């Protein structure tokens, strides 16, 4: 009988990701560990087995496929979208379950970035090159194979997005004056993908004034990105709002040791002075 990993084991996995270089992170495995922070009683073995199943099925589907990125994309669509039913959640987009990979696998629907992690996992298991893109408001992935490229939309069943569609999508999320630039095609690291996933949850908690739950999400983010200065600053400011002045001072002092932004250093020094006076 499968047993749930202890919170200590989950946090240890996340610390390993935090210590790893950006290209050394197990993306889907770390996303499952982050999901387990919110669902500590759920055994992860079944979900890890499902990830392996997706990779195996894509391999079989692509075995006789012609070269090129579109053939690889077709194999991903066939397995993830057609066979397993993964699709974007358009009806309850704001549901927190859409950013928790455990629940995404259970429900077969989620946010673009959560679904994108599954596409990236299945593609990399074949040795294909695939990365997330720095596209605002809607996570996309770029698949490269045999010198060919395709940009896929995991939220829309893995469909290939051409330049015309990308321009329309950008204007829909960033305004009619927005235009495609090379910046929108810039790849993002796996660590940033995970932070983007968790940021969706954190922002929803903050929107509902659930500060303690937002801090719990931030704690997980700091485990995988312990040198991310702005996360420490946000943690410190939220802890101060809850009256945990000692914790706030620790977080803000850590931020000061990591940042080189003089403007923010000055602002934070003022906040630290006030907090320290509360501790005296």
Give your account of this protein's structure:
With 280 residues, the protein is an alpha+beta fold. The protein contains 12 helices and 7 strands. The longest helix has 18 residues, at 190-207.
Give a brief rundown of this model.
By secondary structure, the protein is of the alpha+beta class.
Strand order of the largest sheet: 6-5-4-3-7
- Would you report the number of β strands? 7
Which strand-content bin applies to the residues?
5-15%
First-to-last CA distance: 53 Å
Shape: globular
Q: What order do the helices and strands follow?
A: HHHHEHEHEEEEHEHHHHH
List segments where confidence is low: pLDDT < 50 over at least 5 consecutive residues.
Answer: none
**Sheet with most strands:** 5 strands, antiparallel
Report the average pLDDT across residues.
95
Estimate the helix proportion, in percent. Answer: 55-70%
Number of helices: 12
* Structural class computed from helices and strand pairing: alpha+beta
Over all CA atoms, what is the radius of gyration? 20 Å
Task: Provide the descriptors you would attach to this structure in a database record.
280 residues; alpha+beta; 5-stranded antiparallel beta sheet; two-stranded parallel ribbon; 12 helices; 7 strands; globular
Please write out the topology.
Layout: H1 7-19, H2 27-38, H3 45-61, H4 69-83, E1 87-88, H5 101-107, E2 109-110, H6 112-124, E3 129-133, E4 141-145, E5 148-153, E6 159-160, H7 163-174, E7 187-188, H8 190-207, H9 211-224, H10 229-241, H11 245-258, H12 262-279
